[in-house]
């Protein structure tokens, strides 16, 4: 079931969208805290976002830019300010489609389904892994922290993904090497040591010192 995040401050419209989309077996969540929209986006990890332009505190263009820093998730703008300038602005800011208010709910569903098909038919669902403000984007092998985007090599990315998927648990070096072998990356013990050192250096430079702990003679750990 695909998850849709609804970022709309008019509760009547937001609930109407939610009720209708639920009937089409689309899981939905309405943003409640307009101060911390990005936090809710990361926690919910939706496959599509419905985003109003006029919002409290910061407008939809701001939040579109924030989401685009960490994710390629499809974004559909919904707004009553549907003049050509706003439509062009929405597309230039990273939006994938624009629906003008007032809208027909059947049209909204059709546009959502079409965009979901185009986005996920071949590549699967986009996912994020988050820990202590650091966000690993599985779609482009990058980690984002404190407004910084750090590109990772294939081995660095897979290693960090394994550790984040098992955060709070010690992951042995053998397990990491086997997972890397399974993804067509031949890694021996020395190569893994070098990869971990390079990954730690990148994390340190991004402000994530001591993000990965070593359990001597066992493996590595990302604590809760």
Automatic annotation (TrEMBL):
The modification 4-aspartylphosphate is found at residue 52. The keyword DNA-binding applies. Keywords: DNA-binding, Phosphoprotein, Transcription, Transcription regulation. Residues 126-224 form the OmpR/PhoB-type domain. Residues 3-116 form the Response regulatory domain. Signal peptide: none annotated. InterPro entries: CheY-like_superfamily (IPR011006), OmpR/PhoB-type_DNA-bd (IPR001867), Sig_transdc_resp-reg_C-effctor (IPR016032), Sig_transdc_resp-reg_receiver (IPR001789), WalR-like (IPR039420), WH-like_DNA-bd_sf (IPR036388). Residues 126-224 bind DNA. May play the central regulatory role in sporulation. It may be an element of the effector pathway responsible for the activation of sporulation genes in response to nutritional stress. Spo0A may act in concert with spo0H (a sigma factor) to control the expression of some genes that are critical to the sporulation process. This is Stage 0 sporulation protein A homolog. It comes from Acetobacterium malicum.
